[in-house]
Specification:
The protein is built from eleven helices and eight strands. It is α/β, with parallel strands linked by helices. It has two domains: 230 residues, Phosphoenolpyruvate-binding domains (TIM Barrel), CATH 3.20.20.60; 29 residues, no CATH class.
């Protein structure tokens, strides 16, 4: 398992690999890969991918704890970052540290991730002071969808770009060990990455980030989504549909179960 120091020292040495995963079965596969994945994110995007909701704001702390436990069972030796879902940290620094502690002690996570910048510096500081590693998240922050709308790419305007860089530097000063940069111009991703001493992890933020993260369902082609920042390394949706069709036909034609699938 990667340590915080190893993750930080990877900057300018080796790209970090991160996948978002929500269950035991996929976590087990990730853990078994020859080309090791450095970190697993148990994201509040489980609200969309697993529960079928239209927004991550429908995810709560108990949801993340439940899925974090499952992922930990499947990947006991992989560094796990757990998302702090909507309203698990926003109300106060005290709420933030209590819920971050639950993700570590009950969920089995190694670190937590918080969306937002300057407004949540006291929250980040209290969590870090409690001995819990924090990953930041800037750019497109899905929990703020009701405030900013569905315009995904952030940082195209100068004032917005400046704020993302300022927030990144402030978060670093408060002790975060890494920052996710989501859906920002690749030039801004490069600029932020170069000015930080800690690694950045990009999702739609360009190749110059210190690492990359994708949702495993997206990169395997089984989420139904078609996002610009996603590369489908497999198209398993086609194979899964074919398998289900073959199963249904086999049952209806009395070809399954065969003798070899039956007990004596």
């Amino acid at each position: 398992m990667k340590t915080i120091n190893e993750i930080i020292k990877s900057k300018n040495r080796q790209k970090l690999t991160m996948l978002t995963c929500y269950d035991y079965s996929f976590a087990r596969l990730i853990s078994s890969c020859e080309n090791a994945i450095d970190m697993i994110l148990v994201g509040d995007s489980l609200s969309n991918v697993i529960k079928g909701d239209t927004s991550t704001v429908n995810c709560n702390i108990d949801d993340v704890i439940y899925h974090c436990r499952a992922v930990r069972r499947g990947a006991p030796d992989v560094f796990i970052v757990a998302d702090m879902p909507f309203m698990s940290y926003q109300p106060s620094p005290r709420d933030a540290v209590i819920n971050a502690g639950r993700l570590i002690s009950e969920g089995g996570a190694n670190a937590v991730k918080i969306e937002g910048g300057k407004a949540f510096l006291p929250h980040v500081r209290l969590i870090v002071d409690a001995g819990i590693p924090v990953m930041g998240h800037l750019g497109f922050t899905p929990q703020s969808v009701n405030m900013f709308g569905n315009s995904v790419v952030r940082g195209r305007k100068q004032n917005e770009s400046d704020k993302i860089l300022e927030d990144a530097l402030l978060l670093e000063k408060e002790g975060v060990f890494s920052i996710v940069l989501e859906c920002i111009p690749h030039i801004l991703g490069k600029k932020v990455t170069e000015q930080l001493q800690i690694p950045t992890v990009g999702i739609g933020a360009g190749v110059d980030c210190d690492g990359q993260v994708l949702v495993i369902y997206d990169m395997l082609g089984i989420s139904g989504g078609n996002f610009k920042f996603v590369k489908k390394f497999k198209n398993l949706d086609i194979e899964i549909i074919e398998g289900i069709n073959q199963y249904a036909c086999s049952v209806r034609n009395a070809e399954f179960p065969s003798e070899e699938n039956s007990f004596r």
